[in-house]
Specification:
The protein contains eight helices and seven strands, in the order H-H-E-H-E-H-E-E-H-E-H-H-H-E-E. By secondary structure, it is α/β, with parallel strands linked by helices. The mean pLDDT is 96.
Amino acid sequence: MQNLPTAETYAKEEAYMPWGILTKKIKKVIVDRVPQNGRVVDLLCGTGNLVGLLQKERPDVQYVGVDLEKDFIDYASKQFPAVNFTVADAFGWSSAEKFDAVLCTGGLHHLPYEKQEPFLKKISALVKPEGFALVADPYIPDYASEQERKLAAAKLGYEYLVATVNNGAPDDVVRATADLIQNDVLLSEFKTSVVKVKPKFEASFAKVEMHKTWGEDDYGDFYFVCSN
């Protein structure tokens, strides 16, 4: 069972976590690349912050947000009524039409390791031939054993916590950030390394671009822009 914060706390996190840097970067990619009157879906959308921001900048685009957490979707629907939000398991959710952009930001690590590549293939199948997918996540240093994985997860979590505290986060956001260390070390969440995940992207898409927005060496926040 994942130790999730309240919707209100979750919605505030990107203002203080390093994740906020990534959101600004990827928002520009989406705004610039989605065609006029396009269609965008955000899988594992959380409280809908990203598509809500996008809708304000590109109101011509049709947006869909999908997440399993009803509290998050209820919150998103109230905050961003112009977006079509749906409570559903993103892995099982389907659409009769494909999309100009398929997004998954901060969501892949909520899936067990064995489900991450199948989910990337699902994303690939939802992208129009001329469209793209944008998948972003925090990644831990690479590891060769379970003990190394735990230490790598703790290292990322500690650096995330330090950055969040230094950014002046309120106590509820600090608490949620601290909880991530336990979630990752004990496998309530399933963060991996870019070394291990990149081949999964390459098996799912014809073209893969990798970008980094925060962190040192081989860990931190990365986003992949992919097309078929």
